[in-house]
Amino acid sequence: MTTTKETWVGRGIPRVEDPRLIQGLGEYVSDIHFPGQWAMALVRSPHAHARILEVRTDAARKLSGVHAVISAVDWEDLRQPLPDMKPLSPPALAYERVLYVGQPVVAILADDRYIAEDAADLVEISYQPLTPVVNVEDARQDSVVLHPEFGTNILDYVNFVSGDGQEALKEADHVISATLQMGRVSAQAMEPRGIAALFDEKTQSLMVYHATQSVHRAKERISTFLQMDPNHVHVIAPEIGGGFGVKNGSYPEEVLVSYLAKYFAHPIKWSGDRFEEFLGTYQEREQTHHVQLGIKNDGRIVAFVDTYYQDNGAYPGGGVLVAHNTARNLMGPYRIPHFAIHCYTVMTNKVPQTPYRGAGRPQGHYIIERIMDRAADELGMDRIAIRMKNLVRPQDFPYATGFPGVVYDSGDYPQTFQDLLDIVDVSAFRVRQQQARAQGIRLGLGLANYVEISAGFGFEGVHFRLAADGRIELATGATGQGQGHRTALAQIAADTFEMPLEQIAVVEGDTRRIDKGIGTFGSRTVIMAGNAIVIGGQEFLEKAREAAAKILDVKTTDVVYHQGTFSAPGTSAKSLDWTLLASELQRASHSMPAHEYYFYSNTATYGFGCHGVIVEVNEKTSEIRIPRYVVVHDGGVVVNPLLANGQVIGGVVQGLGSALYEEMRFNENGQPITTSFLAYHLPGAVSVPDIEIHHRNYRAPGNPGGYKGVGEAGIIPSQAVILSAVEDAFRDQGLRLNYAPITPGRLFQAMHREEAKL
Amino acid sequence: MKPPAFSYYRPESVAQALHLLSTVEGAKILAGGQSLIPMMNMRLARPDALVDINHLTELTSIQDVGDALEIGALVRHDELLRSPLVRRHAPLVAQAERLIGHPAIRSRGTIGGSLAHADPAAELPVLAVLGDWELIVSSQTQTRTISAGDFFLSYFVTTLAPEEMLLRIRLPKVSTYGHIAEYAIQAGDFALTIAATSVDVGPSGVVRECRIALGGVTDVPWRDKTIERQAIGQVAQDSLWKDISHTVAEAIDPIDDLHATSAYRRQLAEALLREALHRAAQPKPA
Amino acid sequence: MVSITLRVNGTVHQMDVEPRWLLADVLREHLKLTGTHLGCEQGVCGACTVLLNGQPARSCLTLAVTADGADITTVEGLAQNGQLHPIQDAFWQEHALQCGFCTPGFLMTAVHFLQDNPDPTRAEIKEALSGNLCRCTGYQHIVNAVERAAKNLREKSGEKESIQTSTVEG
């Protein structure tokens, strides 16, 4: 008799996180309230580039309820560079120069945030404005150098060549060129960044509650800056109100709150507000690419050449990673035999870039997808046909893209793309498009493919222990921000231990509970921590069997574990479940079984898929509506389809934001001018369509669980696919869109230029 | 983003409120707070004193006064949306209210606050100018009635003196049909451009009255009676609306900002106006 | 300081507040009801939405002094006797939240919306939620949850009616 084993993995169960959150009982950093805590507010630079001449704090200091007004002009410790921002770390507080609007200059500690903001108003800082450098074209000239000690505004240059590189363009029948750009976007998690710290003088230890994606790296940075024994710094991430990458890096507020809490031995909290989130939280995307695609008459790609400049802002901040990851994604899922990529990361007087959801993946795909559209148009070829011609085929696996370390390994790209075309029903759409056009309605279809490269570096671990109540507790250093890992990881563990889900408790983001961790970003947690459970769980079970053997008074080798029960067949010993095991161990004063396991892997996973979107454009208002959005997505072995759908849909909608509405804009002085939700528009419920998702589950060959990333699949091709669709709606006019986002105002201008040309 | 300190007064009558406005230095009125409080949170507004009129029940009624409705300045948006009197005699207001903010904004924001705030991209100032509303304004020493066309001076600036308070708004009852069309980047946001119309078509299909007002294109709600008069006596048909909209688009000099250039606003105004005229002139079921 | 009285989730609180304190801060900092979140302090994101005398209101745009005497319901007041409100349950079942930060505002908005609109279309639900921003979910599951809650509430009120009817008949 065969039975199908029922598993927890693969079931779309509602989350264990939710009962608290839906009752308003979740504790976010902003909800933490230490008795007597002081609130921190910051005076931030109003200049993009200036010398600080004088800082006058007397009036602020005198205000009732103010405890300290701190500038690095007097506090030398706070001139120390922020950890992890080499080679050009800013000081914790600027004291000589400011390099972007929003850079912190003075910190204020007061009884509450109201008073702290009053004091901030009273701080007087004299600046000597310097020439701001606000775009890469100017920055590259180096006529004004942001960091004179560095000598140039080019923070990083790297090139990647495969095959014959640029030379191969000669083999092409056509060379298609374009300059393609993406504006800056801001992640804008609903909870602004925040941090609260409490110093215990007795134990000389610092407890930090931190809205961070990586508690262990935060701990490292804080102990470095404070020159403290890392064993005395504990970082806890409570509930985090969204992260999307930008709550991962090194920020001035992190070390300021930590340092000041220790210095004053007083609890301090900084809850950033929305304005600070716009000014001080790192941003992403902004790049300009000069692309050439060499192509044969039949549409086959011969060579790809791209020189691009990332407007990185004033300090490293993680931007170089984004620039490099862009290069890694430029091939998309296509066979490109020769390429040459020149990647420049250029500093400007703006807040730094840091990885934001996608982190180079959307940029790379935007370029390859858009240049393929352009090539198809110029060759008079169908945009679908050119893609089919060049997609990596199943027989090509393992397929090395030519970029160091990238080897696509699984799935069927052409079949999946064909599935999308069938689902969208392209030929029926073309008929509808014609009919609509006759009625004055413009419809357009956009299609794009993608590969979602996830994980592939470092480690993540799990600390297993049997809790007193018989539940198995798993602590991981990966710190979620809403992904639902406490549920998904528990599902994996429930299968590993053949136990009901309620018997598993997952603890995230507490440096006291596990020694090491890297964090949650880049769609890595289920892959890394999930496999740590799969493998480490067996080792933990072995320890549990040893413990059970002691209680049962048999040899460990006699103990059999089956579906939550330890027994010793063939002996007179009775059987034990985990609860009984826990209570017997405690009664006997034996230690509880515990085990720590780290999963290391340099093998990335390669999810893939494609998006199809239909747009409806109102020529009169330039409004772009989205009647239909289809995703076909491979996420490998999907642990919880409900959560995976949530990730994909959420990613798509964020992508629609950066394709249609969202852009951080700066004026010629480097002033950000989109610093509220009235000027920086997030997509709202009315403007987003219901997203149709079709899963493909090609097991990842490179890890035991077979998992792949799902967090970025939704956002990767979004800008490419929307611009493609809008162009398609104006095919008769040959509309060319070279800039994302395509806001209504920009679309008006693009349409207008075309009209003027005609 | 916390408001600066201010002295707080909560009058129990309009008379007390007017007294406070004339005696307390730097006093401003707090009504629904949906525009003032965000500006205070951002510290773009720093009133020395607030006179909180939220408890003045004298200002919360909607009354039928014969040829007009008189609406208290403290009547909130959602009451305008629900009021049978407003639906019957000022249907365009009820229509426009659906476009104003969101339920949580409409439950607090007031008609008086919206007019006194004088945002040229807000709906009610546009309707006030379109409908020749009269604003009844008092200080401790005098009461005056201001026609909406004279009330708005520039962005966020009106003829209200610091010691004056808007008490009631008189909306002439309308028997004409109207329509409001607008385009905002996200639902509930301030519109890039608003077009409001009111059209009376006689039994023979000839236009007897036509009113046009625009929002979001200039520093105050825009209206031009000369252009309106061009429609009178003409057959109400799409070609007329096309011509009128085009004439208006040529006549305006729209503002440029972050979201829309002048040229884009001009096109929006033309398109929205054409739609609003067309819809207003549609024969309605009895 | 001004002395005010607020009735929050059925409990009457008398307290002294500074006139400038926002209702949201008084709920969060003084009454320790931290479920009401501050997302933008500008009235756009809706995370701070509470019911003020039964109507949805931005607690970041309402001074606590102005709310003197008001009856306020926050997210903490939705569940009754340990039973989740049908909207809370629907949010859970439909995976309508990820980070959960915006969720209290959505719940309060939806509670009020369904009182007046027991059988809404998806488009109506989206419009009703248009004053609340969510950065994680893309809204789709939230709309699903409001649909599910509407259905459950209708069934529940149907049950109540039939109970009442049978009482009358009996």
TrEMBL record, chain B:
GO-annotated molecular function: FAD binding; oxidoreductase activity
The organism's place on the tree of life at top rank: Bacteria
Keyword presence, Flavoprotein: yes
FAD-binding PCMH-type domain mapped to chain residues: 1-176
UniProt keyword Oxidoreductase, yes or no: yes
Keyword line: FAD, Flavoprotein, Oxidoreductase
Pfam families tied to this protein: CO_deh_flav_C (PF03450), FAD_binding_5 (PF00941)
Protein's UniProt name: FAD-binding PCMH-type domain-containing protein
Species in which this protein is naturally found: Sulfobacillus benefaciens
Automatic annotation (TrEMBL), chain C:
2Fe-2S ferredoxin-type domain sequence ranges: 2-78
Keywords, alphabetical: 2Fe-2S, Iron, Iron-sulfur, Metal-binding, Oxidoreductase
Molecular function (Gene Ontology), one example: 2 iron, 2 sulfur cluster binding
Record has Metal-binding as a keyword: yes
Family annotation (InterPro entries): 2Fe-2S-bd, 2Fe-2S-bd_dom_sf, 2Fe-2S_ferredoxin-like_sf, 2Fe-2S_ferredoxin-type, 2Fe2S_fd_BS, Beta-grasp_dom_sf, Diverse_Oxidoreductases
Taxonomic superkingdom: Bacteria
Pathway(s) of this molecule: Alkaloid degradation; nicotine degradation
Protein name as catalogued: 4-hydroxybenzoyl-CoA reductase subunit gamma
Organism: Sulfobacillus benefaciens
